[in-house]
Amino acid sequence: MDTTPEQSPDRQPDPDPEQPPEPDPEIPPHPGADIPPDPGAEIPPRPAHPPRASLDDGLRFAFGTLTALPVRVARWDREAARVGMLCALPVGLTVGLCAAAVGGVLLFLGAGPLLAAVATVAVPAVLTRGLHLDGLADTADGLGSGKPADEALRIMKRSDIGPFGVITLLFVLLAQVAALAELYGQSWTRGAVAAAASGLVARCALTLAARQGMPAARPEGLGAAVAGVVPSRAAVGAAALAVVACAAAGALVDVYAMPRHGLAALAGLAAADLLSRHCVRRFDGVTGDVFGALAETAGTAALLVLTFG
């Protein structure tokens, strides 16, 4: 007798574990689940980071953007800007030494300290085509306007110079000439070292202003290209190097002058940092004009401190 239980006609046979289950027609498949990959399709490449900039790229960027010297900028990207802003110190030292050389030659030829001081101040303006002085005037107009950030930035982009810019330029240039005339009057060495230190500190302020976390006020221009590109540790290291170099240069004047020259560098960098923070609050970031103002502020403050005592 057959003892196998009779199966009900409504009961489905048990699924075979070796066969894949059939899809439920009431459940729509996942989009693209049954579409096999096209072996001929091109896989989009991953976005590649720009190649690291060399020292030559950085020097070209620094000299090509911070001076009027005929240097061709090979690369214009964030990576080149990072190395370039770290190379701002050699640019500052070059400008400062050129200014000191002109002043020294005039003194050697018999000119007075005042004329030597005027020529020394004129050299950086010539080597930069007045770029930093123009930025100082535009920043003064923007800050002095008292307008909101957008309107102040529009004022700074104008080609003319307003009353705040004229007054600021006048007093800053007079302060630089007066300080150098006094130092040249004491000795040629004091004036020459001060001119070189001022140029170095002025460009080091740009490296600090390009450190990470510094926002750009506009999406275009030099400020947007260099704002936030320098790692913070590297920026602090550049500042420390500038202070040590200025203190060491003070030994050319007198061993006891070394602390004063180091303090002058610190004072210049501190003054520029205060101005950069104020500009970030007022303009929501920095611009190329602000960078010019920072350079003039740092260099002038360093010169003034060197005349104390």
Walk me through the structure.
The protein has 309 residues and is mainly α. The chain contains twelve helices and no strands. It has helices at residues 55-66, 78-86, 88-108, 113-127, 131-145, 149-157, 163-186, 188-209, 222-226, 232-249, 258-283, 288-306. The protein starts with 54 loop residues before the first helix and ends with a helix.
Query: How large a portion of the residues is in β-strands, by DSSP E?
Result: under 5%
Ranges where pLDDT stays below 50 over 5 or more residues in a row are 1-13, 23-41
From the helix content, strand content and strand pairing, which structural class follows? mainly alpha
- Major sheet, described briefly? none
- What is the arithmetic mean of pLDDT? 87
Order of helices and strands: HHHHHHHHHHHH
In whole angstroms, the N-to-C terminal distance is 125 Å
- Count of individual beta strands: 0
Treating each run of at least 4 consecutive H or I residues as one helix, how many helices? 12
| Rounded Rg | 32 Å
Helix content estimate:
55-70%
Shape: globular
